[in-house]
Amino acid sequence: MSLQAGVVEDVRDPGRYDHLCWAFEDAQEFRARAGCFLAEGLQLGEQVWYVGSGDVTALEDELRELPGMEQALHSGAAKADSIEAAYPTGTVVDPAAQVAAYARATAQAVAAGFTGLRVAADATALVRTPEQLDAFARYEHLIDRYILTAPFSAMCAYQRSLVGDGSIAALACMHPGASADATPFWLHATTQNGCAAAIGGELDLATRDLLRLALHRADLQPHNGELVLDASRVEFMDHRSLLQLVEHARSEGHMLVLRTAHPGPGLLIRALGLDRARVEIPA
After folding, report:
1. Hey, what domains does the chain have and what are their CATH numbers?
2. What is the pLDDT of residue 98?
3. CB-hemisphere CA count at 13 Å for 71?
4. Phi and psi angles of residue 272, each rounded to the nearest 5 degrees, phi first
5. d(CA 139, CA 146)
6. What local confidence, expressed as pLDDT, does residue 65 receive?
7. What are the residue boundaries of the STAS domain, all occurrences included (predicted)?
8. How many CA atoms, within 13 angstroms, populate the side-chain half-sphere of residue 194?
9. 3-state SS class at 78
């Protein structure tokens, strides 16, 4: 279950991150990272999917080269799937429909006797245009909400040279865990009672545009007229970022509540004289 946000160094031990973003340099790196991530799933009794570019036969051959996958393919514990076979070039993913598809696949995996479903996917082909990127970033937040309560986990991978650092950050910030240097902050789903989302990392002038897009794409839901964010993992927040969060909440007619024990946000709120924001100390 995704409880906190942070940098993932080793996909063999994603720890608390059931939903992680990995920016990779080449196909060899993707195969290696995916293999480690999926091998962990097999040990946990999950069905694992290897999703990438190319035809299914070639992807199955790639999967067989990974430790333990030959037998898993034969038994049905592992399968390969092609992005191009499922999505014609230029397809803009329907976020809700994509989540529903994985929910059905997860239910089928559990019905077949597996403990859940784990997917490692090279989704580069689905985020090449601005329209694709916007839809897929929205999907990333929706699937993160689903993962909180479902036996489903995913490593969403994107090739840096084809997507670019800006797009990588826009996708990575919608995950609770990401590879190093993928994003300066995280906005993700949380199980914390009453919280619309959790936010962590560093927020400053350089993240202004990225934060604006993330807030818009996440479509955060208020609780009793308040937009409550678990901010316990925020490492730094400047006054501009605080004002940005306050304005986002205000534009939707809500009070901003930051749930954190750190003194910084409260000091900023008092210094700026903000009456549409408050800090709530976690129980």
Report:
1. 6-183 (3.40.50.300), 197-280 (3.30.750.24)
2. 96
3. 4
4. -90, -5
5. 10
6. 92
7. 199-283
8. 14
9. strand
